[in-house]
Amino acid sequence: MKPSIKIGTRASKLALWQANWVQSALNEKFPGQKVELVTIKTKGDKILDVPLAKVGGKGLFVKEIEQALLEGRIDLAVHSMKDMPAEIPDGLCIGAIPQREDPSDVLVAREDLDFSSLKRGAVIGTSSLRRAAQLRHARPDISITPLRGNLDTRLKKLQTENLDAIVLAAAGIKRLDLTHRITEYLQADIMLPAVGQGALCIEMRQEDPIIGPMLAPLDHADSRTVVLGERAFLNRLGGSCQVPIAGHGEILTDTFSLTGLVADMDGSRIIKADLSGPADSAEAIGFKLAEQLLARGADEILKALEADSKLS
Predict the structure, then answer these.
(1) What is the CATH number of the domain that holds 300?
(2) Which terminus of the chain has a smaller tally of CB atoms within 10 A, N or C?
(3) How far, in Å, are 69, 120, 126, 130, 189 from residue 184 at the CA level?
(4) For residues 15 and 73, what is the distance between their CA atoms, to the nearest angstrom?
(5) E strand or H helix at 222
(6) How far apart are CA 206 and CA 312, in angstroms?
(7) What's the pLDDT tens digit per position in 92-119?
(8) How many domains are contained in the chain?
């Protein structure tokens, strides 16, 4: 037991919901332990007028929190797993992955229309390259406009910026009790989710003798297996927010199935494949699926995108 366990979190409404959930879970498991939240502003919270891909991509919402964890100013950190870079800093590790929420993306349309019913040339707001590429692939006629800010801000901009629709993660909408705003749950054949979407990452210092055992009861075995399989796929591709990469896995009767894709920025070319195998080989399957996509041309897309990013 420590005098107080400090949880590091961003200050957005969704981030605080997630951190409060972890705080409540710890309070329930360890009723005599004081647990408090420490809010930390990240670079991603400070820069709101530039697309994520142009200011560093993955890690923008976690680096300052990870630094506080490394320096001992907090004892654990709660992140959205999809914000986590493929590589975790030395000295830190994923302490627990609680049971995953719905990983899908949803459409929120101003006139309550589904995706196929949106008018020709409809304007959809998203700053996710993954979402933009898949939307353009499904509907080349639509227009994509950058959309930053927390969930509440993006919902407000649907009205104030005269957008026809926006695309959000189902998990955030559900956690904030905003499901009444959902127009359509986008099927995976239209919108494959981001790696780790819907899952929480509770990060800790490696081999912390107090925090490690406390987080163990919060870990959900199947969610961890699936997410680590997805992350192995992302890691092999060297993925970041600067590349349209998607990956979604699931476990059915001890079999892990993973679908992954890499896309051109304009969605004109999508390389997509599936791979299944024993659930206890999820990370090897993720790695192998990435190798298959690379062999089928994803390496060309990734090299071209890397070259473009260096020029811009």
Answers:
(1) 3.30.160.40
(2) C
(3) 38, 18, 16, 18, 14
(4) 19
(5) helix 221-237
(6) 37
(7) 999 999 999 999 999 999 999 999 999 9
(8) 3
